Amino acid sequence: MSNSSVPDTVWKRPPAFITNPTVRMGAWVLLAAYLVWSVGSLDMDWERVARGLPRAGDMLARMFPPDFSRQSLLIRGVIESVQMAFAASFIGMILAIPLGLAAASNLAPRSVYLAARSLIVLSRTFHEILIAIFFVKIFGFGPLAGLLTLSVASVSFISKMIAEDIENMNMGQIEAIRATGASFSKLLIYAVQPQVLPRYLGVCIYRLDANIRHSTVVGIVGAGGIGATLSASFKRYDYDFSLAILLTIIALVFIGEIFSTWIRSRLR
Amino acid sequence: MTPTGASPDIWRRFSPRQTVIRTFWMIVIVFIVVWSLSNLDITWIYLLDAHIQAGDLLTRMFPPDWGYTGRIMDPLLETIHIATLGTVVTFVISIPLAFLSASNTTPNWVTWFIGRFILVSSRSINTVVWALMFVAIFGPGAMAGIWAITFRSIGFMGKLIAEAIEEIDNGPVEAIEATGAGRLKVLLIGVLPQVLPVILGTTIYRWDINIRESTVLGFVGAGGIGIELYSSINLFRWPEVAVMMTAIFIIVVISEFISAASRSRIT
Lengths: 268, 267
Fold this sequence. Notes:
- The complex is a heterodimer of chains A (268) and B (267).
- Chain A has 268 residues and is mainly alpha-helical.
- Chain A has one domain (71-266): Orthogonal Bundle (MetI-like fold).
- Chain A has eleven helices and no strands.
- In chain A, helix 10 (226-235) runs antiparallel to helix 11.
- Chain B has a single domain (72-265), classed as MetI-like fold.
- Chain B is extended, with a radius of gyration of 26 Å.
């Protein structure tokens, strides 16, 4: 800070982002004001919250030891979740190809591009569980609603990723194939596909991993899988069974993540 | 890639061996998918009249009951507060946790393991499942939502920050250590400034994910717009549902825009 010949004896770390001290103080004051306002405006029953801590202790105590005795229920739910995840990833993987191509600005005509992009934005905005509720209303309770929910989420995610990848690809190869007089489908097979395939597969595997995670919760609103069992166990205060389900979910997600990282590292 | 000897008459991208391997994997994938689909308890007949049902739902939503807008302002604000407060609490918790979980700043392997275990469990359990738990603890309301958001976000932010810490430049750290500074000083002056952009970036990114997540917390009673939305859906008040869906769409898109704009300024 000081340019005098005698250096300051105490060094102060210069601020990293906002160098203007007034603005920096202002930001802190704003943050503090927001915290006070938001906490004050939340309609909270503090008495009930205060009783929370002993209840948390009680809940933990009742969770241990986890109760794995209802194995068949647990296994059936988990398998249903995994099956929904696999099937939805596959559906997403297939449907994302046309949608991804349509959402790439360098391949698709402007109107198609805009339509595809808005479809992707629309379905990405709404949380999976929100979509699941609508599918439950349309198709009734059961894994079909969950399967379709996860499929919609997968399609929009994968197609967004491949669209971005296609937009970033090397146009030289496109021009080279185009110069041979190839048709659009040949162009896709020989110029686009080799450039985006490795990342496309990586994204699909990542999505499978994400679907496994999400498939465990869509059941809470009735869309199949282990989530329904979990939610029911909470409602019945069967906390030891809840913990058993949670541990199974953690193990499942962990396996899915290891599998996904392993495959993606091999794809590179 | 091409077989040795005489060049083949027709150019092929893959050698026979590659073709066999690729076909094998495709068969495996198709087999898994067929197994999954056939084993799921799905009544396919429901798909037949799906378009009628969906069309019915959409026509019931129109015209949206715009008079309802005033009544959802408070729940909408609560949704944003839950996401923001949850992110603030996460920010406070995840930084020390990230230092604990990064292999170069953790005191010993036991603390490293504890840190990693917390991160993995936090990420494996969905926000809504955390919400189920906190509703059981704190009762229905925003408090459960804030903690649900926090417990899910800790793992996300902690992991990304820990990865950033593991990739820092060791020079400044050694320089600070050479001055005889204590452990805490080394972390604060040598490490923290290097990862600060990542910390702020992931915080803002997680905030916008949390806005999206907090819109559904109400389905399990953890506060926000989800409570009203769920009751309107269950009472078949579709014009109100349409208003709420529009509102959710607007706040999610705005938060995503704010998040993207501020992150591009940081990095």
